């Protein structure tokens, strides 16, 4: 087994305004100065990126964007260029999140263009994949994830794949905190997550050879302080992409400290 530095990401979605993002970033910086074994990134909204970039610049926390355009520049109203994200100091960009796939209609083909564009401009894509509840109950879990990998990674070669993180995020496990405060949504069990992470790793090895074992795989979907340790102790789970619990500095720090 290749030992990998654990990567924990906070996806703030459209949950925090600029002032709240500044506050959270400041609290995280003061709580997470001494970390060496963990890579951390936060993904604020686009409008909060410049402020958060300044706050985290001398800390171990890296900056991620939640999305970007498949184009570099031009007449694309409302779009965000990878060049600007780079200029702001982003290291990562989340691509293909299930909320963008399902609510905003992003296809694997579009996501593939974005993956190529991100790499072209030196951003590391965090490529999200994952099946829905109905795809799981109809026994199509592996087929759906394999298709997403194959199409989203089309024409990505073995040099490029080294700069990509895959986040396995089963849609049924994603907790939309605020939308679902009753907490009915349950995370994948460590066993379910492990099964899929092993499958994804095998897929990557069959596509890229041994390099496939070096691609970091994050689990996402209702990661909380209570379940982080069990999930992160599995050898094919190299980190977590945290949504709801990353909005609370105590919870997020606890998840990181559970490693
Ligand atoms: P969650 O979100 O942790 O709130 O389930 C994860 C994600 O959407 O990346």
Describe the structure concisely for a colleague.
The chain contains 10 helices and 8 strands.
Assign the CATH architecture: Alpha-Beta Barrel
The total strand number stands at 8
At the first level of CATH, what is the class?
Alpha Beta
Ligand names? 2-phosphoglycolic acid
CATH superfamily membership: Aldolase class I
What features would you highlight for this structure?
TIM Barrel, alpha/beta, 16% strand, binds 2-phosphoglycolic acid, globular, eight-stranded parallel beta barrel, 259 residues
Explain how this protein is built:
This protein has an 8-stranded parallel barrel, surrounded by 6 helices. The protein has 259 residues and is of the alpha/beta class. Helix content is 38%, strand content 16%. The model has no long low-confidence stretch (mean pLDDT 94). The radius of gyration is 17 Å and the shape is globular. It starts with 5 loop residues before the first strand and ends with a helix. 2-phosphoglycolic acid is lined by residues 11, 169, 174-175, 177, 220-223, 241-245.
Helix and strand topology:
Elements: E1 6-11, H1 18-31, E2 38-43, H2 49-56, E3 61-65, H3 82-87, E4 90-95, H4 98-102, H5 108-120, E5 124-129, H6 133-137, H7 141-152, E6 165-168, H8 190-208, E7 217-220, H9 225-232, E8 239-242, H10 249-257
Parallel strand pairs: 1-2, 1-8, 2-3, 3-4, 4-5, 5-6, 6-7, 7-8
Helix pairs in contact: 1-2, 7-8, 9-10
This protein binds 2-phosphoglycolic acid.
């Amino acid at each position: 087994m290749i030992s990998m530095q654990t990567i924990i990401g906070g996806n703030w979605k459209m949950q925090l305004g600029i002032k709240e993002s500044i506050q959270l970033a400041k609290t995280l910086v003061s709580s997470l100065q001494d970390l060496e074994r963990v890579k951390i990134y936060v993904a604020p909204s686009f409008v909060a990126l410049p402020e958060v970039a300044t706050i985290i610049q001398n800390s171990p926390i890296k900056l991620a964007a939640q999305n970007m355009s498949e184009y570099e520049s031009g007449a694309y109203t409302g779009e965000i260029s990878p060049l600007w994200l780079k200029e702001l100091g982003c290291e990562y960009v989340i691509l293909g999140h299930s909320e963008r796939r399902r609510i905003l209609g992003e296809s694997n083909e579009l996501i593939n263009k974005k993956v190529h564009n991100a790499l072209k401009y030196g951003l590391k894509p965090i490529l999200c994949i994952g099946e829905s509840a109905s795809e799981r109950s109809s026994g199509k879990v592996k087929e759906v994830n394999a298709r997403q990998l194959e199409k989203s990674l089309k024409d990505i070669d073995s040099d490029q794949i080294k700069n990509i993180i895959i986040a396995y995020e089963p849609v049924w496990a994603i907790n939309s905190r605020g939308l679902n405060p009753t907490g009915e949504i349950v995370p994948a069990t460590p066993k379910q997550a492990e099964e899929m992470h092993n499958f994804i790793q095998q897929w990557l090895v069959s596509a890229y050879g041994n390099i496939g074992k070096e691609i970091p795989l994050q689990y996402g979907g209702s990661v909380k302080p209570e379940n982080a340790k069990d999930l992160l102790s599995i050898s094919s789970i190299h980190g977590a992409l945290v949504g709801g619990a990353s909005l609370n500095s105590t919870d997020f720090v606890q998840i990181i400290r559970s490693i």
